[in-house]
Amino acid sequence: MFYLVTAGGTVGFLAYLSCHECDAPSGETPLVFDRTKYNYGSHYSTRTGKFKAPVTGLYLITSQLQGRKNSAEYRLIVDGNSVTFTFERDSQDSDGHVMGYTTIVLNLNAGQQVWIDPQISGSDTLWGSATSSMMSYFGAHLLKTV
């Protein structure tokens, strides 16, 4: 993985859900990914579920949510505004797993906050893992300062 090192150090994190079956928050509440594989610069909060851009630049943002039952929907939010909407539906309408993914490069200003707002239908269950195999995760990496 490529990491840009700024005067303040490396900027990047990868956070994940550690519970096996997690309840999705209701309303427009950030999903808190409670564990991190790494959190260079400590710009992601496992308390709030938000990433705060430390410098203005281009950031690679990636996320995956795995839900149980019929469908998984989620929005990538920047400062309260929806930037992407991801929808995944189980074509069999079975009691299976569904996954939604998103990867995007965003130009963020210093201080802007980014988070995931899940919208799970058919079930309020998200899948996580206490082991190293992450099922639902959220990450960001600074690619270039501007």
Looking at this protein, list some descriptive labels:
146 residues; mainly beta; Jelly Rolls; five-stranded antiparallel beta sheet
Structure description:
This protein has 146 residues and is an all-beta fold. It has a single domain, classed as Sandwich (Jelly Rolls). The protein is 0% helix and 56% strand. It has strands at 5-6, 9-10, 12-16, 21-23, 35-40, 51-52, 57-68, 71-78, 81-89, 97-108, 113-121, 125-127, 137-145. The strands form 4 sheets. A 5-stranded antiparallel beta sheet has the order 5-3-13-7-10, with no helix packed on it. A hairpin with a 2-residue loop joins strand 1 and strand 2 (9-10). The model has no long low-confidence stretch (mean pLDDT 82).
- What is the level-2 CATH architecture name? Sandwich
Beta-strand content:
over 45%
The major beta sheet can be summarized as:
5 strands, antiparallel
Counted by DSSP, the helix tally is 0
Number of domains: 1
Structural class designation: mainly beta
Number of strands: 13
What's the CATH topology label?
A: Jelly Rolls
Approximate shape: globular
CATH class placement = Mainly Beta
The string of secondary-structure elements, in order, is EEEEEEEEEEEEE
- The average pLDDT is 82
Helical fraction equals under 10%
Sum this structure up briefly.
This protein is mainly β. Helix content is 0%, strand content 56%. The protein is built from no helices and 13 strands.
